[in-house]
Every structure is written in C-alpha cells, then in structure tokens.
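[STRUCTURE TOKENS]
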Amino acid sequence: MIRRVRHAAGVGLLLLAADPALAQTDPPPAPPRDPIDRLLEPSRPTPAAATEPPPPVTEKAPALPTIGFAGPSGIVPRSGWNEEYETMEDRWRIGFPEWDRYGLGYPQVFDYPYRPGRWFDPYNQNVLKGDYPILGQHVFLNMTGTAVHLFEGRSLPTATTPFESTAREGTRDFFGRPGQFIHNELYTLSFDLFRGDAAFKPVDWRVKLTPAFNVNVVSVQELAVISPDVRDGTIRNRTWGALQEWFAEYKIADLSEQYDFVSVRAGSQPFVSDFRGFIFSDTNRGVRVFGNYDGNRTQYNLAYFRQQEKDTNSGLNTFEDRNQNIAIANVYRQDFLFPGYTAQASFHYNNDGPDVQFDRNRFLVRPDPVGVFQPHRVEAYYMGLAGDGHVGRYNISHAAYWVVGRDSRNPLAGAPQSISAAMGAIELSYDRDWARFRVSGFYASGDGNPNNGRATGFDGIIDQTNFGGEFSFFRRNRIPLFGVGLTNDQSLYTNLRSSRLQGQSNFVNPGLWLLNTGVDFDITPRFRLVNNANYMLYDKTATLETFTFQSEIDRDIGFDLSSGFEWRPRLNNNAIVLGGLSMFLPGGGFRQLYNKQNDRVDPLLSAFAEVVLQY
C-alpha cells in the first residue's frame, strides 16, 4: 500500500510499504528512488479503474519556524505548492521541524529548542548581524554597536611655575602635585553592507560606515596642564563626533579555485602594518589593494594614506587635511619554514610636510616645541622583517626595522639631519596547561650626538605598540617633559615627540632597552590574569643632556610592574571587563630628569577600569 508522509522540512515524500501477506506471490519491490527523482518524474495518465482522486487541497500547511530573528524575506516565490511539496526558494529561511522531545505526538511549545529571536538579541541568529540576507540571497547587513567606558587615575610628573601658575599659592617646587583622573566614553555604530558569503569566499563588494561619538573628562591637580591659559582651571570637558570609518570595497578578481582573490578598498579604513603595531596603526583616509595567493598561504597589502588631522582629546578623525603622505607595502607567508609560523616583510614610506599646528587645547604640536620652532619636513623609509606564530610548543613573535631618510631641520638639533636608526623586538612564550610564561626584549637605537647631522634615534610613524605588557605604566601613559613627551601613550619609543597622533616623527632621541618577563593565567575560560615586569634603560643619554642642559644623566630608567585582568562573562566579545594596576619605580636616569635637586621621585601609580559592551 501507499502512504503519504510529510518530511520535517515541509516536502512530501512517498514511502512504499509491502504487505507481508503478498510477499510470497508478488515480485520483489523496486529499489528505492531518491525523493527528488519522484518529484521530477513526468506525470502519467491515471487509469480509469484507479481509485477516486484525492480531494483538492484547500489550505496551505503552516510555515515552520526559523530560529533567530530572520526578518522579512526579500525573495518573491516563483512557484507554488501542492499536496506533495512546497517550494522554499529563500534557502536561508527554510526553518526547523516541530519539537516533540517526549514523543507525545504533539509539539511542546514551552520546550522548543529553536526559539525565534528578537531584533535586539545579538547572541542568536539575527538578520541585523549578517546571519540572514537583507536583500535577495546574497546581500547582508551587519550592524555593530559598541560602547567603551574608561575610568583611569594616575600620577605623573607635572611641571608648574611657582607663584604664577600653581594651584597652591606659595609653592616653590618646580614639579607640583602629580594626580590626574580621566573618564572617557566612546560610542560607535557600524553599518557593514556586503554581498557574498564570507564564510566560504571573500565578499564581492562592501560598503561600511562607522559614526563615532566621544565624551572625555580630565581632572588634574595643577594649572596649565589642560591648557596654556591658567584661567582654564584644572578640569576639562570635551565632546567630539566623527565619521571614523567610511569606505567602499570591491573584489577585482578570483585567482584560483581556493578563492584566492585581489580586492581594492577606498576611504577611511583601519590598518595595522605589522603584528604588533610597531610602525603604523591607524584608521585614516586611503586606498588599499589587498588579497591572497596559494590557497591563502600568502597575503599582501599595498596601501596609500593621505592623513586627516586628529582630534586632540578623543583621538578620532576630523575632516581637516594634514600634509602627510604614507605608503605601505607588506607581504605575509603562512607556515614559513615551520607549520604555524607566519613571516612578514614590509616597506613604509612617510612624507610628513612642514606646517604649524596647535592642538584643540592650544598647545603647539607641530613643529615640536623644543629648540628651534621652525616647520620642517620628515621623509623616512622603513624596511622591516617580522614573524609571529609557534615553532613546536614554543610561541615566538619578533620584528626588526631599519629606517633611513632626512629631516630638513630637526627642532632639537637645530639643523638638517640624515636619518639612520634601527629597532628590534622578540618575545618567546611557553604554554603549560592554563599558564603562559613569557620573556621578551625590545631595542630602539638612540642618538649619541645631536650635533653631528646624523639622527640615529628610532621612531615610528603612528605606532600603537602591543609589546612589553598591555597594562604597563610606561606604555599606557604619556610622560611629559618640558612641552613634549618622554614617551607617549600606547607607545614604547622615548622619542621626545609632542604627540603620538599629531606630532612628527623625531629621530633625535635617547632610544630604549627593555627587558620583560611575565606570566598569564587563564583562571577560567572567562577570566584571564596578566602579569608583567619590565626593566628599562636609555640607549644613549646625549640627547637628554642637550635638551635639559644637564650632564652625565644615568641610563637607568627604572622598573615597571603591572598586573591586570580580562573578564568575558559570556565567553564572547559582547561584554568585556578590563582592569589593571601598574607601578613605576624610577631609576637614576629618570630621577635626574624630574627632580635633580632632591634626587628622589616617589613611585608613580596608575589604575584603570574599562567596560566594553558590544551589540
């Protein structure tokens, strides 16, 4: 006999069941056929002696549910349905079967595992997160909202002018109270519209917009810190809005059956030129050609950036043009010599033209406010090799760069300079169960003679260095020194530069040696503890002696101890809580810069808490 059975996905199947009583006389049944073959057979006329035809179908079977928030379908059906099958041309919204966990013969709605989602649910499938197409079968929209809240307190050497610009009347010490507090809030909403399925191949095209809004508050204990005008007090409140990302991307061609490709992207876009951000890490206006080859074992980038000016307090872009051109070319090779190890070669070109720029707090940032205040051009060429990955059970990350070029008139040296400087870094780590043990070293050459016309102190372009401990005091804070920074935030270079984002590269600097040891503990899959200890030395001190009119400054900078945690309560990036505490113990070379008469500087402290929420 013949029985009609409805398949879980809504397609009618025909299954044949032989009567056991007829098994001895009837021939064996024909081998089973694929259901699709049955549906595609040409129709045959029904014999007159056949049974009565089935009654016509008068209503459509109910649609089966689709998990997550699928949104309305953009597919208009071209064919209908009948008693045997129903076409589902939107392959993304077919749905799942009814749920009968206990075999009671009817669905248990309260126990249904494939629950439809809601538009504001980022954890399950959602059309707003690119899980379902928003248009047709291939066009997706991914919306990402991010809120970052930062609270940080720190103590930094803070210069003051006795009697005139100090917050405490009658103070005679050159360095006043060091306390500072920062509250920073950043909100971004990203719209990423693309065609293609990136799980299998690169997108055919993409358009992305990311508006951003920032609120920041700074409170200090001395005057003339937040502004050159002492009447502005000790508290600064600023807001800034920007269109941080805006670019279009187009895939030029597929190069192989493994989806090797070449694409072009134009507009304001994020780009990090190496593994650790030693030379360039920024979101800015440019054009980039990128792709891969040999089954994705080789990746490459060719990029040109015409820099936009930065907002001083938020670090976001403005629409003001900055007279700076940057060109970058790099190539990565995976499984180079060892499985799991990736090698990189890169070239950077920086042409930072002469101009005069005061930041939004009215401090001079170009040229650097040291020595000769004269606009100058910095033209530098960087050649580098880097690697990241593992060799067996040991993890390795390293980089080496050499930079050459010319500075038309360095402010500190007061004369044109030919540039020749080097940098090297290496980190080795070993994983044992839930702990990672690390040792690393960092070297940036210094300038031993500022007056010989050769600048040998290394500096990056716009670096954001992820090395030596992410919670390190020396890396997280800008340490001011007479109008410039001994070092700037998110950087390890002791470059005597006015600002990491708005200042020009300065190759007349003391350089740095850094030795690091650390251990990370994955306490749980959600909670990670990071601990680091750094010891730092100047490479050369002649530049500092010229700058501060001192002699025989020690090379010893001091010890930097830090500990912090990272907590991901939902095992993803939708909620991240960070916190850290760092302490800097000044050495002789640091004490001489900031308190020569007393020969003593108390330990500098920094503590922060950061919450990242993402939809």
Observations:
- The two ends are 55 Å apart (CA to CA).
- The chain has a mean pLDDT of 85.
- The chain has two domains: 1-137, 231-608.
- The first helix runs from residue 35 to 40.
